[in-house]
């Protein structure tokens, strides 16, 4: 499913996503969003106060989908530990890479979402870390150690999210890092 498909159930979210993807957050206007949604600007303002509200709503939908995929990966006990950890982290990395496929403004949009929805973005990151630590705990490395390593892995994913020009390389680096990390934990 593409990142745009995630918001497809609500014309306002589709319009906001498309306007932000096309123009970036700073250049997108409420007029752009209203026109794309097939609404008048007064009708748009009945649903949202400003484009920050639109950004929060679009971002919330994307993060909810990403967390659903991360939870499913963490809960899938048929795969080995490394595969499950990669899948949890790929839910986060894939969101950014998918956004980059649709927009040259991906990094700006992520930064703006972090600005307008600081606590939501922090909660999302904390949940990805928690899920990663939970899967790593199957190595019997100890909860505290797994939590620290999960934080390090998520921070690494955040770094990989800046490599938008080569998604395949970013995914390959993630897999190599997780494989090495899990191998080290299982030997301990």
Structure report:
The mean pLDDT is 94. This protein has one domain: Tetracycline Repressor, domain 2, CATH 1.10.357. Helix content is 81%, strand content 0%. Helix 5 (51-75) runs antiparallel to helix 6 and helix 8 crosses helix 9 (143-160). The radius of gyration is 18 Å and the shape is elongated. It is built from ten helices and no strands. The chain is mainly alpha-helical and 188 residues long. It has helices at 3-6, 11-27, 30-37, 41-47, 51-75, 81-102, 106-116, 118-136, 143-160, 167-187. It starts with a helix and ends with a helix. The longest helix has 25 residues, at 51-75.
CATH topology: Tetracycline Repressor, domain 2
The assigned CATH architecture is Orthogonal Bundle
The percentage helix is over 70%
- Return the average pLDDT rounded to an integer: 94
Largest sheet entry: none
Structural class: mainly alpha
Helix count from the secondary structure assignment: 10
Would you list the SSEs in sequence order as H and E? HHHHHHHHHH
Shape: elongated
Task: Give the distance, in angstroms, between the N- and C-terminal Cα atoms.
Answer: 38 Å
What's the count of strands?
Answer: 0
Sequence stretches where pLDDT stays below 50 over 5 or more residues: none
CATH evolutionary superfamily:
Tetracycline Repressor, domain 2
Oligomeric state of the chains present here:
single chain
Strand content: under 5%
The radius of gyration over CA amounts to: 18 Å
Q: In total, how many domains does the architecture comprise?
A: 1
CATH class: Mainly Alpha
